């Protein structure tokens, strides 16, 4: 296939609400196009990170090339870009879409259109993509594809006559889907002779080859030995090879116009390769860079502290490495009296935070304590200055605060009408305000509301799922900042204030939350050799208290003075147990304690 002819190239993403089956469908496509042997087929091949496989969710986008021999007798090059479905990772979706001409919109035939189906379809339409609707899971007895077609037409204004009925599980309809992609998705346009214009979609660091960038070529072509330049950052480099993923890396002579593949940059500093930047020729640059992505804005902040302070520099290095392909990650150094040196890290949401923490621990062998998440507060001081506060410890003294504003979200929930009351009550309980409601069909209503982000990062989502028996789907976007009456709740252990346990709460709920938190901490903090009082305080005023009773834990008592190897084993076991604890003053505090606020039921 000549790379100057783009008529046989199809670049598309698969988008869907979480769990509607994108990854499963991608796997079937790889299988049907013989990209991987059936016997090598591990389920969900595109989800390469361990955490993705274990949790069954897609976090990072992934671009794979497959060759499809179509019914018209021609071979087509498909570049398939898998995207994440969770609302935390919407920025990855828009990044993938910028590299495509088409999008397969997967809708679960048993669930119908859900909140992120709507937001993903909107992103795809705004990017002017050709949309191929695919109704998945038709093998299930509860599938109702005809109704789902109607929802696609009515809720999304997308013609559903062309919708392909598929089952990612059995493979039924996948061939029809591939044919639909050939006919419905436009081939890429571009000028093969123009100066190179390639958009960086993603990148990762390789010890030997430096940064490897995934790119979409809009104009021109790239070969090994080309002298190239990053347009925004300005650095130049010698291309050390190009190729595509099938799904393993396959070297190519050239990446031609319209194609998606990888470029080995040889650059040793990950910070020089920025997702959203444009690669061009050093000597003959293109006139204009590709429109950059809008930068994702972190919404949730948490302190990450190594349990062993000697790991501080390692933590910094690890964060820098992760940032290479996760540009939304930001951090500043943070010092805590209780936890020592660490970083205040910003995330897109709670899932993003969990994933990053897990990757830092697994891939970089770090033992970390994460403190309870916070949002970005605007604190207006009496002297007229406004400060951004993402850590409760940084809150100025009460006497110097005029008022505090907190971020609100514009949220929507789609739910069957039976659960409308439950959702509205939940919104009120979390300081939210319902603005309006739209009946999408007899079976689903869309409820719009404004809610403080701080409420959403506590337990709103879990409670929404449980109160609606899992039927509700949630989507949100950043709204405005609003004034709230907020105070800092401090926690004292054995009479000492533990800065890492402080958090900002609405004043009228401070008492209830302090009481629940003290009770929760009492369950979490193990008994020590002495009694540990736990106190909740606002300023100097103690507002709640509980006590961890003393215990004398002599692990060797069980050994009757006998077997020395058993004795050693027990001592080692005790040491292991201690590893995940942090000594604060004289009290051993487990990781869970720092996140106890997420589990507090304050009703
Ligand atoms: N019965 C049935 N189950 C399916 C089908 N397709 C996917 N599933 C199941 O649905 C669940 C979600 O599928 P995934 O492919 O992980 O969904 P996803 O949309 O990629 O999810 P994220 O990557 O987390 O956004 C898995 O348990 C699949 O086994 C199907 O056609 N039929």
Characterise this structure.
The chain has 603 residues and is an alpha+beta fold. The chain has 13 helices and 33 strands. Strand 7 (197-206) and strand 8 form a beta hairpin. The structure holds guanosine-5'-triphosphate. Guanosine-5'-triphosphate binds at residues 16, 18-24, 56-58, 84-85, 136-137, 139-140, 167-169. It comes from Tractidigestivibacter montrealensis.
Task: Give me the secondary-structure topology.
Elements: E1 9-16, H1 22-32, H2 50-55, E2 62-69, E3 75-82, H3 90-97, E4 102-108, H4 115-126, E5 130-136, H5 145-156, E6 164-165, H6 174-184, E7 197-206, E8 210-219, E9 222-223, E10 227-230, E11 236-238, E12 242-245, E13 249-252, E14 254-255, E15 260-264, E16 278-281, E17 300-306, H7 312-323, E18 330-336, E19 340-347, H8 350-364, E20 368-370, E21 377-381, E22 386-389, E23 401-415, H9 420-429, E24 433-441, E25 444-452, H10 453-467, E26 473-484, E27 486-493, E28 496-497, E29 503-506, H11 510-524, E30 532-538, E31 541-548, H12 564-579, E32 581-584, E33 587-590, H13 591-594
Parallel strand pairs: 1-3, 1-4, 4-5, 5-6
Antiparallel strand pairs: 2-3, 7-8, 7-16, 8-15, 9-14, 10-11, 10-16, 12-13, 12-15, 17-19, 17-20, 18-19, 21-22, 21-23, 23-25, 23-26, 24-25, 27-28, 27-29, 27-30, 30-31, 32-33
The protein binds guanosine-5'-triphosphate (GTP).
Overview in brief:
The protein has 603 residues and is of the alpha+beta class.
């Amino acid at each position: 296939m000549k790379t100057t002819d783009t008529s046989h190239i199809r670049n598309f993403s698969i988008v869907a609400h979480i769990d509607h089956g994108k990854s499963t469908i991608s796997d079937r496509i790889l299988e049907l196009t013989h990209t991987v042997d059936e016997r090598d087929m591990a389920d969900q091949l595109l989800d390469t990170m361990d955490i993705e496989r274990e949790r069954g969710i897609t976090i990072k986008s992934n671009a794979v090339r497959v060759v499809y021999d179509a019914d018209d007798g021609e071979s087509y090059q498909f570049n398939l870009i898998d995207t994440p479905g969770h609302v935390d990772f919407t920025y990855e979706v828009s990044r993938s879409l910028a590299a495509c001409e088409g999008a397969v919109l997967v809708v679960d035939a048993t669930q119908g259109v859900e909140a992120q189906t709507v937001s993903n379809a909107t992103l795809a339409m705004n990017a002017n993509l050709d949309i191929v609707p695919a109704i998945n899971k038709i093998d299930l007895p509860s599938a109702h594809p005809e109704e789902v077609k109607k929802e696609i037409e009515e809720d999304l204004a997308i013609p559903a006559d062309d919708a392909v009925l598929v089952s990612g599980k059995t493979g039924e309809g996948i061939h029809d889907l591939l044919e639909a992609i050939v006919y419905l998705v436009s081939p890429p346009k571009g000028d093969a002779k123009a100066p190179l214009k390639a958009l960086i979609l993603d990148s990762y660091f390789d010890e030997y080859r430096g940064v490897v960038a995934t790119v979409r070529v809009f104009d021109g072509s790239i070969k090994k030995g080309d002298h190239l330049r990053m347009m925004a950052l300005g650095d130049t480099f010698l291309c050390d090879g190009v190729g595509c993923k099938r799904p393993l890396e396959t070297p190519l002579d050239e990446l031609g116009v319209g194609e998606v593949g990888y470029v080995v940059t040889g650059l040793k500093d990950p910070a020089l390769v920025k997702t959203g930047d444009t690669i061009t020729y050093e000597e003959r640059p293109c006139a204009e860079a590709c429109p950059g992505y809008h930068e994702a804005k972190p919404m949730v902040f948490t302190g990450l502290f190594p349990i062993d302070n000697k790991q501080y520099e390692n933590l910094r290095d690890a964060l820098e490495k992760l940032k290479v392909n996760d540009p939304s990650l930001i951090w500043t150094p943070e010092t805590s009296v209780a936890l020592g040196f660490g970083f205040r890290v910003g995330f897109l949401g709670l899932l993003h935070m969990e994933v990053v923490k897990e990757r830092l621990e697994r891939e970089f062998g770090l033992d970390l304590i994460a403190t309870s998440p916070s949002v970005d507060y605007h604190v207006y001081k009496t002297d007229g200055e406004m400060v951004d506060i993402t850590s409760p410890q940084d809150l100025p003294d009460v006497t110097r605060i005029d008022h505090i504003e907190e971020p609100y979200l514009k949220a929507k929930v789609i739910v069957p009408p039976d659960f409308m009351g439950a959702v509205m009550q939940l919104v009120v309980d979390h300081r939210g305000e319902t603005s309006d409601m739209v009946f999408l069909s007899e079976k689903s209503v869309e409820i719009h509301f404004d809610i403080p982000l701080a409420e959403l990062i506590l337990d709103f989502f879990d409670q929404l799922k449980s109160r609606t028996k899992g039927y509700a789907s949630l989507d949100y976007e950043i709204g405005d900042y609003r004034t709230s009456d907020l105070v800092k709740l401090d926690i004292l252990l054995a009479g000492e204030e533990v800065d890492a346990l402080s958090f900002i709460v609405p004043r009228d709920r401070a008492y209830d939350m302090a009481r629940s938190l003290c009770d929760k901490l009492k369950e979490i903090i193990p008994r020590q050799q002495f009694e540990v009082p736990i106190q909740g305080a606002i300023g100097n005023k103690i507002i709640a208290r509980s006590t961890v009773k003393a215990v004398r834990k002599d692990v060797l008592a069980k050994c009757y003075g006998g077997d020395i190897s058993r004795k050693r084993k027990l001592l080692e076991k005790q040491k292991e147990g201690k590893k995940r604890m942090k000594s604060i003053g004289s009290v051993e505090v487990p990781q869970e304690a720092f996140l106890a606020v997420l589990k507090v039921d304050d009703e």
